[in-house]
Amino acid sequence: MIRWEPGYLAKSKAGHDKGEIFLIIREEGEYVYLMDGKSRTMEKPKKKKKKHLQPISYRNEAIAAKLMADETVMNESVRQAIQYQKNTNPKKQEDVR
Q1: Which strand (E) or helix (H) includes residue 57?
Q2: What mean pLDDT is reported for the chain?
Q3: If I label 58, which of 6, 43, 81, 87 is the partner at 20 to 30 A Cα–Cα?
């Protein structure tokens, strides 16, 4: 089952950001809004079509809880969550399909 819920990570499959990992902050139809804590922040998220992303079966529950409560998520927390995923699975990014 594909997860497009806030707090999950996704890897870009297309575009100039191909290969980058982002955190999903919200879903709207065929689009999701993403942040990476660096160039894409909570204030300036990236809007990307789902078909251009590969979901990763990792969810940061603390960040997800803040997103669900409409609280601000710190960029540093997002960078740490993405780095944790990269360190845990350096070669393999799981597809949850």
Answers
A1: strand 53-59
A2: 89
A3: 43
Residue 55 in contact with residue 4, Cβ under 8 Å?
Answer: yes
- Give yes or no for a contact between 23 and 42, defined as CB atoms under 8 angstroms apart: no
CA distance 17 to 23: 14
Token pair for 34: 């993403």
Q: What is the mean pLDDT of residues 11-27?
A: 94
Residue 19 has pLDDT above 90, yes or no: yes
Say how far apart CA 34 and CA 47 lie, in whole Å. 6
Of the listed ranges 12-16, 30-34, 90-94, the one predicted with least confidence? 90-94
Q: pTM here?
A: 0.86
Residue 35's SS3 state is strand
Asked whether the beta carbons of 12 and 25 are under 8 A apart, the reply is no
